[in-house]
Amino acid sequence: MSKIMTVDVLSSIKGAQPSEAVNKLFDAIKKAQPLNNNAFNNNHNNYVSLTDLRDDVVIESSSIEKQIIIENFPKEKNGYLVVSKVIEE
Amino acid sequence: MDSQIHKIHQQLVDKKISCTALIQQKLNALKENTNNTVNSLLNDLALQLAAKVDTKIVNGDTIGLLEGIPFGIKDVYMLQGTYATASSNLLKNYKSPYTATAIQKLLDAGAIPIVKENCDSFGHGSSSENTIFGAVKNANNSDLVGGGSSGGSAVNVAKDYTIFSIGGDTGGSVRQPAGYNHVYGLKPTYGRISRYGLMAYASSTDCVGPIAKSVEDIRILLNVMSGKDVKDQTTYASAEITKDSISNAKAIKIVGYFKNFIENDAIDSKIKADFLTTIEKIKAKGIEVKELDFFKSDILVSTYYTLAMAETASNLSRLDGSNYGNRIDDKNLKESYAITRSENFSEETKRRIVGGNQVLSQGFSDEIYLKGLALRDAISENFENDFKEVDIILSPVTPNSPPKIGDSLKDPHAMYLSDAYTVGFSLGQLPTLTIPKGTETGLQITAAKNNDELVLKFANFLKDTI
């Protein structure tokens, strides 16, 4: 995708601009000494072993869980949950 | 201070107080409190559970150690049927459809949840001022912040409104408010406690963390909540930590501290002097103390925030008002998303989402995000090397005392820098405990990964030493 997207579009936040406070943090990273370390995630051993993957099964939600999910839905009309809009593009 | 859990347990067993009376007393205190620690009170649920405990006691049944003990929950955890607002406008009416694993384990042990606690919205902040429920006021001085992001939880424990509270620590959010309010707060090794049901901020450093008034209570809670969980595949099985195993610190021969944390201009002179006094006391007990080299504070803070913002931009992208949340409709779907997010996120949350999308964008990711990842690896490697030389790393919790309410909002960059001493251990995924001793905002005790036991052992030793 060659289209350039600005941060307000990327973030879905109207009028969003990069902030000075955050840019100062990024400047510190840019200035940091280059590292001779291209092996990312060397020390992050949070992987799951292939023999230890969880079962690929559908777990039925409880009726109370389903009820709360429906309650949390932002809009309801005549017993239907109303979505905000459809994608038109 | 001695274990509050054991003390209350004994009072219940000896029938010196009924569980219902105890819970009612705590609910009343929370309702009347002026520190803004409460997002919602769990009156009905708590009193219902208390009545069951009272019935057991009256019938002469044995009750477990945590049965009937009132506790608080940072408002970023799911507890089925209760509000989970993340202190945000977007989720102010959102109800938890299910219960977080860590909280379920406490419920299974009989502990009684009484309050969902105020915090920085989605954990975004170090002062608990970025919240729709009003700034949390410090337990010891109401002009000062309660710290953050688990500010309400730390203040509730400090004020005895809860016996313990469950906070969440991504870059210091349990340890810093614990330090600011003079209580204990643990960030366990990443993966020791399941994150299932904790709203994701930065998934690679998010940790469930107990806040309490004694090392013993922290030990009890850690044991109950730890363990492998198929719903969070970063979890691992861990052995129980016994009371005896942390009763003496003979195994600890060498303690290290980061020289550059102490020898700089940013640290308050009293915190520095008190920290160095603590070091002398440790030496006087025959423990060798080593000065260690570490990354500069600005690099630590920048690396942490770069990665945390990238992760939060991704995690919070689901909050668009489609399936839940305070949806605002507009002319088309994209506009509806944008207006919902623009109107409902706090300024700090927006700042972090935008920052995250900046670093993940083409052109920026190489020089910032990928470099941040490489720096994180270097930081982790540094820790691994340090723990070949020392058993424990000791550090202050914060460079300064708690700011006045309002100051952090005026200067976000200064707020980020105030996390300088906590974020490194988060990046390293190391177990770190704040103890309310040694300096005005306490001390952090850190050990190598998976060595949470050694942290508690040294905390017990320091309790008697300083």
Question: Could you explain how this protein is built, in words?
Answer:
Chain A is mainly alpha-helical and 89 residues long. Chain A is 30% helix and 4% strand. In chain A, strands 1-2 form a two-stranded antiparallel ribbon. The longest helix of chain A has 12 residues. Chain A starts with 6 loop residues before the first helix and ends in an 8-residue tail after the last strand. Chain B is globular. Chain B is an alpha/beta fold and 466 residues long. Chain B starts with a helix and ends with a helix. Chain B has a domain of 242 residues: Alpha-Beta Complex (Amidase signature (AS) enzymes). Chains A and B meet through α1, α2 and α3 of A and α10, α11, α12, α13 and α15 of B.
Write the topology of this structure:
The complex is a heterodimer of chains A (89) and B (466).
Chain A: H1 7-11, H2 20-31, H3 63-72, E1 76-77, E2 80-81
Antiparallel strand pairs in A: 1-2
Chain B: H1 4-13, H2 19-32, E1 38-41, H3 43-58, E2 70-74, H4 101-108, E3 112-117, H5 151-158, E4 164-169, H6 175-181, E5 184-187, E6 207-212, H7 215-225, E7 254-258, H8 259-262, H9 269-284, E8 288-292, H10 297-315, H11 333-344, H12 347-360, H13 365-389, E9 392-396, H14 407-410, H15 412-417, H16 423-427, E10 432-435, E11 443-446, H17 452-465
Parallel strand pairs in B: 2-3, 2-4, 7-8, 7-9
Antiparallel strand pairs in B: 1-3, 4-6, 5-6, 5-10, 9-11, 10-11
